[in-house]
Specification:
mainly alpha, 26 helices, 8 strands, globular
């Protein structure tokens, strides 16, 4: 009888584990586990598995827990937060936004067209690197080194520039040598970007997922492929190509002015050296473009292929070329004086036109892909009818262009001592015309955003008014009050504004495209020479145009400062992190498939951590797991379950709450989180429950029906009580996206999931809590 009693609990009450994964903003293990005494079982300070101290040895005492699962907390918040200096990643926001466009590809069976879509995004990302480096070259080489240092009226007020001023007649006073010195700034930027990308690769991309025997079967969802979260080879190739592109941009800025002078006044040797550098520049640029074209991801396996000889040749050749260009430009050229702008100023118009053409090509690919969906595809509100990727890519380009134009114009205004560059009496010509026009359209974009915000506010008020009757019907046996009803209705209406994001993105993109085209047309109309937008405008519009030009440059400077300040506050203040964290965590969830200098992907560490933990624990104990994810944690949980072997997946249940899988990821990333993909995940594991509220602005239902048990549980009543009562003597708050575990439905659904999981040797547990009814 003693043997039977010892064996009985192992069959009817097998050891169970609840793996908690927090969401945006993060929380401490003590808060997740509800106990101040916790221990870390695995991991490090960046991401780790924690338990209550009393549960640290739960595997040695399986009967001690009774019907309750052992709770573990996976804390990953330090993967996306840390010290305040990491807020500087926000300055690379255009890179992150463009990288998102890669993952917004519509689902389709046209694999060649899909690869073409991804290729266009990678080329578009390359132009953003060129634009960033060219912007720094414009500020340091053109405005500071060429224009200000070349004019006594500007240099005499800048003591730090005196040694290189043209009037100083020193060794650095020649234009080519000033440019070579000023090139240290963009070269330092390139080195920092390369170092950041390489360092974060070791922290994220180098984490190897679990290997599986044999190739994946046909039709395997992308997130279930073994190499999806291992982008070592592609990121390395892209990093080399983008670094080379930045170096070649600096080479162009150094080589073109010197060659322009040598064509008219230089000797045969200098002209030959300049043309040789130009030929090497063109060849290396073509090679860098080719490397980007062949940097596609290999997701069907762990690709550890070492760097190809071509990439090493590209990096070495680009480094040597920029060094040769610095020497060539610094060669003594008596009689050379800096006048006007650098002759390479037209490059910004060319980059802007190139980006517009690539965005148009990307839109064409997206339309064709959206018209050829797979047979199981369900268009359940796909954002912008498949054009989300091109729209987001256009936003990335617009952000890059506006920041470039604004910073260049602000620098020129600062060096000009309050005058307008280009006007009579000003010592500076100013930045290229297209950058001035781009800075001048910022007030117009902000005005459009203000109009859009006003329209959303009016829509919110109308929606709030129509919801009041529904709110009162949800609490039928309560004495209703107008203020309380209005409060709840406003919360539901605000939560619904999230679904208006595609329309807002479409309006902003259309405005950005039109205003960007107008900036290029305005620059071309003036022959690229005028920098005073007010002077080029009609007489009636000269006043507003001048104000827009001045206001735009100031707004960009203030915007950069505000962006860094917001980022620092978000890293230090949990409440601010929750406000902006969802957009940041969505952007950094995806691997760096298009831009290697984008912020690193935290999921390449978190997903292998979770999948390794579930696989190793079930293999060691034979127990059952409920992986419980909130908000962004539910996305990580689903991605980790996808990575499990079928045998392990059969012992895992998924509990999600505040889940953005369908509402956010399914709409914007349909190829990876569309309805068909979520149904495949449910069919593979069968045991999934999702809790949601109407007051939640982020989460929602997943929209999957199941014949045996519904996946969606809700909408949960929020607030739990309308007014005061014996059970609720104090006013109940509107929880929205938080505190799902406080709802009684949470414990109920967790018990039901645990009961449906199979026990040892496939024997299902019985009863609502896993206890045998006999």
């Amino acid at each position: 009888m003693s043997t039977e009693r010892d064996a009985g609990p192992r069959v009817t009450t097998p050891l169970a584990l609840e793996l908690l994964v927090h969401g945006v903003g993060g929380t401490t293990p003590q808060q997740m586990l509800g106990d101040p005494r916790t221990v870390r079982l695995a991991g490090d300070d960046t991401a780790g598995i924690h338990r209550r101290s009393c549960d640290a040895d739960a595997e040695q005492h399986p009967g001690r827990q009774g019907d309750e699962p052992v709770q573990e907390a996976y804390c990953w918040s330090n993967l996306t937060s840390g010290n305040g200096s990491r807020a500087l990643w926000l300055l690379l926001l255009p890179f992150m936004v463009t990288n998102l466009a890669h993952w917004m590809r519509p689902p389709s069976l046209r694999t060649r067209l899909a690869r073409g879509y991804e290729l266009v995004v990678r080329l578009l990302a390359l132009t953003l690197t060129v634009l960033l480096v060219a912007a720094v070259c414009e500020v340091t080489l053109d405005i500071v080194g060429w224009q200000c240092a070349g004019r006594a009226a500007c240099a005499r007020d800048r003591s730090w520039l005196g040694f290189a001023a043209a009037g100083h007649h020193g060794w650095w006073s020649q234009p080519g040598r000033r440019l070579a010195l000023a090139a240290a700034a963009p070269l330092t930027l390139i080195a920092v970007l390369w170092w950041l990308s390489h360092r974060t690769w070791y922290a994220y991309e180098s984490q190897r997922p679990a290997t599986r025997p044999g190739p994946p079967p046909p039709g395997t969802p992308p997130l279930a492929l073994p190499g999806f979260w291992y982008g070592r080879r592609s990121v390395a190739r892209l990093r080399t190509a983008h670094t080379a592109a930045g170096l070649l941009t600096v080479t162009t800025a150094l080589c073109v002015p010197a060659l322009s002078f040598d064509r008219a006044h230089g000797g045969v040797v200098l002209r030959a050296a300049g043309w040789a550098l130009t030929a090497a520049l063109v060849a290396l640029a073509a090679l860098a473009t080719g490397v980007v074209c062949h940097a596609d991801r290999a997701e069907t396996g762990l690709d550890d292929t070492p760097d190809h000889r071509t990439t090493r040749l590209l990096l070495a050749g680009s480094t040597g070329t920029v060094a040769a260009a610095a020497v060539y430009g610094a060669w003594s050229r008596p009689g050379w004086a800096s006048d006007g702008r650098l002759p390479s100023a037209q490059a910004f118009s060319a980059v802007t036109v190139c980006q517009g053409a690539l965005v148009a090509a990307l839109a064409a690919c997206a339309v064709l892909l959206h018209r050829a969906p797979p047979p199981d595809f369900e268009d359940c509100g796909v954002a912008l009818r498949g054009l989300a990727g091109p729209a987001v890519a256009l936003l990335g380009c617009a952000l890059g262009g506006v920041l470039t134009g604004g910073v260049a114009q602000r620098t020129a205004d600062w060096l000009d001592g309050g005058r307008t560059p280009g006007e009579h009496g000003s010592p500076l010509v100013g930045p290229p015309a297209v950058l001035t026009w781009e800075a001048s359209v910022i007030p117009a974009v902000l005005a459009l955003l203000a109009l859009g915000g006003a329209a959303l506010a009016a829509r919110l008020r109308r929606r709030e008014h129509t919801l009041r009757h529904e709110v009162e019907q949800s609490y039928p046996h309560e004495e209703h009050h107008a203020s309380r009803t209005r409060q709840i209705a406003r919360a539901v209406a605000r939560a619904g504004l999230t679904d208006s994001a595609p329309m807002l993105v479409a309006v902003v993109c259309a405005a950005a495209f039109a205003l960007g085209g107008g900036a290029v047309a305005g620059a071309w109309a003036g022959g690229g020479t005028p920098v005073d937008v007010a002077a080029d405008a009609p007489r009636v519009l000269r006043g507003p145009a001048g104000a827009a030009q001045s206001l735009g440059s100031w707004l960009v400077g203030a915007g950069v400062v505000a962006l860094v300040a917001l980022g620092r506050r978000a890293y230090r203040d949990p409440s601010a992190r929750r406000t902006v964290g969802i957009l940041w965590d969505v952007g950094t969830f995806w691997p760096r498939a298009a831009h290697p200098f984008a912020p690193p992907c935290y999921a390449e560490r978190a997903v292998p951590d979770l999948s390794w933990r579930m696989a190793s624990w079930t293999q060691a104990t034979g127990g059952r797991i409920i992986i419980s994810g909130h908000s962004q944690g539910s996305v990580l949980a689903a991605a980790a379950v996808w990575q499990l072997d079928p045998a392990v997946r059969g012992r895992v249940a998924l509990l999600t709450y505040g889940c953005p899988l369908a509402r956010l990821y399914g709409r914007w990333f349909p190829a990876h989180f569309g309805t068909a993909r979520l149904r495949d995940l449910h069919d593979d594991m069968h045991i999934w429950s999702n809790l949601w509220r109407r007051t939640d602005p982020i989460g929602g239902p997943v929209g999957i029906s199941s014949p045996d048990a519904p996946v969606d549980c809700g909408p949960l009543l929020d607030p739990a009580a309308y007014g005061r009562s014996l059970a609720h003597p104090l006013p109940e708050p509107i929880l929205g996206h938080s505190d799902f575990q406080a709802d009684p439905a949470f414990a109920e659904q967790r018990a039901l999931l645990l009961a449906r999981l199979p026990g040892p040797k496939g024997v299902p547990a019985q009863g609502s809590s896993g206890r045998s009814s006999g």
